[in-house]
Amino acid sequence: xxxxxxxxxxxxxxxxxxxxxxxxxxxxxxxxxxxxxxxxxxxxxxxxxxxxxxxxxxxxxxxxxxxxxxxxxxxxxxxxxxxxxxxxxxxxxxxxxxxxxxxxxxxxxxxxxxxxxxxxxxxxxxxxxxxxxxxxxxxxxxxxxxxxxxxxxxxxxxxxxxx
Length: 163
Hints:
Belongs to the sigma-70 factor family. ECF subfamily. This is RNA polymerase sigma factor. Keywords: DNA-binding, Sigma factor, Transcription, Transcription regulation. The protein is mainly alpha-helical. It folds into 2 domains: 7-74, Rna Polymerase Sigma Factor, Chain: A, CATH 1.10.1740; 96-162, Orthogonal Bundle (Arc Repressor Mutant, subunit A). It has 6 helices and no strands. The chain has helices spanning 7-26, 30-46, 56-74, 96-107, 111-122, 138-162. The radius of gyration is 19 Å and the shape is flat.
C-alpha cells in the first residue's frame, strides 16, 4: 500500500514554492511569512485525508493562494492625511525607465502568457503541471510562455537600442 510522504518531507520539498506564492501576492515580509505558516497549518490538518499520489505542490500552492487572499482581506485601509514613504529598491541593472518599460512589455502580453510565465518561472511549476490551474494542454501553455518570453525579449532589445 502506497502512502503520502511524511508531512515534514512535504514541508521541506515544497516550502519554497509556497513561500514564493505568498510573497508574490503579499510582498516580502511578515505577511507572506504568516500566510506561509497558515498554509502549512491548514495543510497539516487536511493532510491525513489527502488522496495518495495527489500533486502536493499544486495542492499547497492553492492553499497558499487562499491564505494570502485571506491576509489581504483582513487588512482594512486606514484613512491618512499623508501616505507614508515606502522604500523601494530597483533590481540591479534596472533603472526606473527600464522598470516602466518592463511593465509596459508585460501589459502587452496576453493574460494567459502572463499567467503561464508566472506559474513556470516564478513558482517553478513544470509545464505539465500548469493545466491544473489554467485551461489548455501542456504543449499549448508552453507555446504561450515561449511567445510571451519572445515578446519580452523583443521589447527589451528595442529598449536597449533606443538607449
